[in-house]
Amino acid sequence: MSKTLIIGASGQIGKMATELLLKNEQNVVALVRDKNKLSDLNSSFLTIVEQDLEGDFGDAIKGCDQVIFAAGSGGSTGDDKTVLIDLWAATKAATFAKEHGVKHFIMVSSIGADDPDSIQGDLKPYLVAKHMADEHLINSGLNYTIVRPGTLTDDSASMQVTTQRPSDRSEAKISRENVANALLHIATNSFISNRIFELFDGDKPIKAAVK
């Protein structure tokens, strides 16, 4: 059975994705800075690795077939952490994955990462970091899926999404639970080509929207 490394497994989306994969009896290696944040998870399919993403975490990838990068610096941190986590840790993860022969790398990116210059203000450094991390993955030689969710909400999973950006900017949002369920679908199905797509709450079942 394949083994998936989830980087940022104690974050909101990362933990949801971890729980979903475990419920589907998928082998998961959860990479976290503080293992106590996963103390409520108990599964024979789970291995927890405690490691700081600002250091060398390459050994955590050994033996894994797939990587989900769901880590983020968080909205309350400064640009320094954005560079170190959203950019540097993400690029290191792709490099380590290539070195260890990972078959598929799933990157949780962001809407706007395709064109950071279209955004001005405090969000721009974050989108630049996401853009550069995505470009590194694209050029890494790995098989990849890059998911660019809209504005994240804490709504319950509707299990209905779309990859088409809504014309009304206020509708360009998606629940974290919907993102996590999309990651489950991506991680447990085979796709023959590299893909980049945005993801929003919508009107199609995840399996139909994320083909």
Automatic annotation (TrEMBL):
> Which residues belong to any copy of the NAD(P)-binding domain?
8-189
- Which CDD domains does the protein's record reference? SDR_a5 (cd05243)
Could you tell me which InterPro entries the record lists for this protein? Answer: NAD(P)-bd_dom, NAD(P)-bd_dom_sf
Report the domain of life of the source organism.
Answer: Bacteria
Alphabetized Pfam families for the sequence:
NAD_binding_10
Signal sequence region: none
Q: What name has this protein been given in UniProt?
A: SDR family oxidoreductase
Species, as recorded:
Pseudoalteromonas distincta
